[in-house]
C-alpha cells in the first residue's frame, strides 16, 4: 500500500456525518419532542375531563390549531407566528367544545369535540381550495403530518418546549388526582379548582398547538400513550405524567420510522401511520368504556 493512500481522506464518513447532523438528528429530536408534548397534553386532558377517551385531536384542539396555523402559514408567517396562531386556534376550539359539551357527561364532551373537529375541518378544506398553487402545496403537505422537513430551529423549539410544558403540568399532579373525585371534592381538599383547570387547559392547548404548527396533524398519540401508561402503572397522575411523555416519544419515533420504511424510498405521512394505529385503538377503547358511560 502506498503511503499516500494511507493519508487519503475518504469523503464517505464526512457525508454520513453531515447527513446525521443535518437530517437524522433534528428529525429524531423533533419526533420525540412532539410525541412527548402530545402525550403530556393527552394525559392532562384525560385527567381534567375525567374521561379516558379525551385527547387533543378528539376534542377539537388539533383541528383548531390546524385551521389557525394553516391560515398563518398561507399568509407567509414564520415559525413563531404559526406557533402562536396554532396555540390560539387550539385554545379557541377547546373553549367552544367546553361550551357545547358537559364536563360531567363524557360522551357528550367527545361528541361535541367530534362535531367541532368536523366543522373546523370543513373550514380548513374551504381555506385550502382558495389558496394559490404555491401555498396549496405547502399547506397540504404540512397538514398530513410529517417530520421530513424538520430542521434544527423546529427541533430545538420543540425540545425546549416539551420539558417546560411537562414540568408545568407535572406540578399539578396532586390536583389532577383530587379531581378524579370530582370538582367539589377537589375544592374541599383546598385546591383552587377554576384557576388550576384553566392553567391545565392552556398548557394542553399550547402543547398541541406547538406540535400541529410545526409538524402538522399527528393524531391519537395523546390518546394511546396515556392509556398505555395507565395499563402499566395505574391511574395515579404522578406516574401517568411521568410515563406518558416517554411512551408518546416512543410512539412518534416508531411511527416516523415506519413512515420512512414501509414504502421506501417513498415516504408516508406520519399522521397516516398514527391514525391507522390510533383509530382502531380508539374504537376498542370506546367499546370497552361504553357500558360504564351509558
Automatic annotation (TrEMBL):
Main localization is: membrane
Q: Which domain of life is it from?
A: Bacteria
Q: Any stretches that span the bilayer, and where are they? A: 79-97, 109-132, 152-170, 200-225, 268-286
Annotated Pfam families: FecCD
What is its membrane topology?
A: Multi-pass membrane protein
Matching InterPro entries, A to Z? ABC_BtuC-like (IPR037294), ABC_transptr_permease_BtuC (IPR000522)
Subcellular locations according to the entry = Cell membrane
Q: Which CDD domains does this entry report, sorted A to Z?
A: TM_ABC_iron-siderophores_like
Q: Which UniProt keywords apply?
A: Cell membrane, Membrane, Transmembrane, Transmembrane helix, Transport
| Family, per entry | Belongs to the binding-protein-dependent transport system permease family. FecCD subfamily.
Name of the protein described by the UniProt record: Iron ABC transporter
Native organism: Pseudogulbenkiania ferrooxidans EGD-HP2
Its taxonomic path starts at: Bacteria, Pseudomonadati, Pseudomonadota, Betaproteobacteria, Neisseriales
Amino acid at each position: 500500500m502506498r503511503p499516500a493512500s494511507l493519508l487519503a481522506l475518504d469523503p464517505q464518513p464526512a457525508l454520513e456525518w453531515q447527513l446525521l447532523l443535518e437530517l437524522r438528528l433534528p428529525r429524531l429530536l423533533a419526533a420525540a419532542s412532539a410525541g412527548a408534548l402530545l402525550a403530556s397534553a393527552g394525559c392532562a386532558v384525560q385527567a381534567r375531563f375525567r374521561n379516558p377517551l379525551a385527547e387533543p385531536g378528539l376534542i377539537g384542539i388539533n383541528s383548531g390549531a390546524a385551521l389557525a396555523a394553516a391560515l398563518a402559514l398561507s399568509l407567509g408567517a414564520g415559525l413563531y407566528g404559526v406557533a402562536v396562531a396554532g396555540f390560539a386556534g387550539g385554545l379557541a376550539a377547546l373553549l367552544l367544545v367546553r361550551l357545547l359539551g358537559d364536563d360531567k357527561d363524557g360522551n357528550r364532551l367527545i361528541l361535541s369535540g367530534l362535531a367541532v373537529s368536523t366543522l373546523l375541518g370543513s373550514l380548513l378544506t374551504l381555506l385550502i381550495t382558495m389558496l394559490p398553487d404555491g401555498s396549496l402545496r405547502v399547506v397540504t403537505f404540512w397538514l398530513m403530518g410529517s417530520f421530513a422537513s424538520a430542521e434544527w430551529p423546529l427541533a430545538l423549539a420543540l425540545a425546549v418546549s416539551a420539558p417546560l410544558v411537562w414540568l408545568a403540568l407535572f406540578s399539578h399532579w396532586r390536583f389532577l388526582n383530587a379531581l378524579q373525585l370530582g370538582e367539589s371534592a377537589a375544592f374541599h381538599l383546598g385546591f383552587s379548582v377554576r384557576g388550576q383547570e384553566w392553567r391545565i387547559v392552556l398548557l394542553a392547548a399550547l402543547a398541541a398547538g406547538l406540535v400541529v404548527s410545526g409538524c402538522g396533524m399527528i393524531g391519537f398519540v395523546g390518546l394511546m400513550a396515556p392509556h398505555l401508561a395507565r395499563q402499566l402503572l395505574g391511574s395515579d397522575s404522578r406516574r401517568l405524567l411521568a410515563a406518558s411523555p416517554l411512551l408518546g416519544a416512543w410512539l412518534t419515533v416508531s411511527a416516523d420510522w415506519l413512515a420512512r420504511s414501509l414504502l421506501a424510498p417513498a415516504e408516508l405521512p406520519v399522521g397516516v401511520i398514527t391514525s391507522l394505529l390510533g383509530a382502531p385503538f380508539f374504537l376498542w377503547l370506546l367499546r370497552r368504556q361504553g357500558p360504564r358511560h351509558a
